[in-house]
Amino acid sequence: MPPSLRELHPALVWAPSQALDPGHTGRMSLLSRLSWLLAAALLLAGCGVTAPTVAPSPSGSPTATLAVASDGTADSALLAEIVTQALVAKGRPAAVTTLPTADALAAVTAGSVAVLPAFARGLLAGVSGSEAQLSVEAMVQQLATDLEDEAGVIQASGIDAGGRYVVTEAFATKHKLTSLTELGSVEELRLVGPGAASALSDGPSGLLAVYGVKATWSPQDDPALRISALESDTADVAYLSRIDLAGAALNLVTLEDPLGVLQPDPQVLLITPALRDDLDVLEVLQAVQTLLTDENFAALRVQAGNAGVGPAVHGFLATNGLA
Fold first, then answer.
1. What's this model's pTM, rounded to 2 decimal places?
2. Looking at the domain 5-160+265-319, which fold is it?
């Protein structure tokens, strides 16, 4: 019989001692990090937020309502609802509270938010003040190191919002494209991607610096419209996340990245320090993170659009034994 979660739970929360660089001393103060997080908020989501609706203390008491933070964007709201419903199904009162990511991190540290679902790349850029080329595991380790005792970092799920550059099969055939290396020889390229990606190291400036790709950049935050731009031939190349690609109906060619300009962006959960030893909560969060993948999250996006977030999440969790 495999060991139970209660025997393995210390491995579920990345500890500062697991740091990628034990000698790292370039930590910023919490206030400095929050200012960076405000600048990095576009990497994580948008600006449509409302005032917090729940601010209880997530103490060890099983009757305390656990606040799960969302920044108000569609993916964030969906992740927060998944965590909330999974906790409630296991007998722990929980509710979604909506507030900006910077405020949510401070609230996690203070204990008024229990769980913050987020994506590691933007968080790490916010707390460290820089963007480094890291693997998924190293990114999570570094995030845990930089946050130290201010928040626990639960292992990454199978969701990765890292970007990919894609073209249609017809465009790939016409220009004999298999990788970003060959893309540099195509003239007058039209590139479409989310507005925030224009400032990322793997955005248009990174393509130019690493692969010599020269392209005009058109911002479009809706991934469906980016795919439509390819289909209608109003764009040649689209920057899509792995989640977007998992849900794409159009057959697209993902260009290989032999020089490693593209970065992963794993989905993680931050927890308030008081929950580090709450085995019941950790068990639920571990189950959620183990369940989530790019494919099932992309499908859940569609279901939430049709049936509403609450009913879609309930059906998803019930199908997978978590409701």
1. 0.81
2. D-Maltodextrin-Binding Protein; domain 2 (3.40.190)
For residues 281 and 315, give the distance between their C-alpha atoms in angstroms, rounded to a whole number.
21
d(CA 116, CA 57): 14
Q: What angle do CA 11, 13, 19 make, to 5 degrees?
A: 90
Helix (H) or strand (E) holding 210: helix 204-211
C-alpha to C-alpha distance for 154 and 147, rounded to whole angstroms: 12
Can you tell me whether residue 70 is helix, strand or coil? strand
Contacts of 80 (CB under 8 A, 6+ apart): 68, 69, 70, 96, 117
Distant-in-sequence, close-in-space partners of 165: CB < 8 Å, separation ≥ 6: 180, 183, 207, 237, 238, 239, 254, 255, 257, 262
Phi/psi for 13 (5° steps) reads -110, 115
Domains of the chain, by residue range, sit at 5-160+265-319, 163-254
Q: Are 140 and 268 in contact (CB under 8 A)?
A: yes
User: Positive or negative CA dihedral for 91, 284, 265, 308?
Assistant: negative
Condensed to tens digits (0 to 9), the pLDDT of residues 269-321 reads: 999 999 999 999 999 999 999 999 999 999 999 999 999 999 999 999 999 99
Helices 30-44 and 101-110 pack at an angle, to 10 degrees, of 140
What radius of gyration, in Å, describes the C-alpha atoms of the chain?
Answer: 20
> Could you tell me if 120 and 132 are in contact, meaning their C-beta atoms sit under 8 angstroms apart?
no
Residue 12 pLDDT: 53
Q: Which fold has domain 163-254?
A: D-Maltodextrin-Binding Protein; domain 2 (3.40.190)
